[in-house]
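Chapter summary example.
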Amino acid sequence: MRLLKAQPTYSESIGQDLGVVGTAAMLAAQEAKPTLRAELAPGLVRLKFSKEGWSGVNVYRQQPDGSWRFLGTDTRSPYEDRTPLAQPGQPELRQYRVTYLHKDLEVGTPSDTVSVTFAG
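The structure predicted for these 120 residues follows.
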């Protein structure tokens, strides 16, 4: 890449066309990490987030096996998870995270995981 950039015919626009020049937007997308808060309400878990200029977020909940299940996309806070209890009457630990979206693509790193004990 250094040799390419040293050529007399090289320009920033050529570098961008070839994908060898990063932009501030690309750097911001790589470093983007949303914040997330969870609140309990009767029959639901309310997840509050700030878009910080991104298109929205993808919302995930951790499954008992440790995998993350996609719940949905939201472009306005809050997101409400109304999934009923797996076993009626038995409270369960629920863990959530969100990832920013730029148009339809996930960018950055997921938020820190938030945990709540949901009783239905």
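To summarize the output: Residues 35 and 111 are 6 Å apart (CA to CA).
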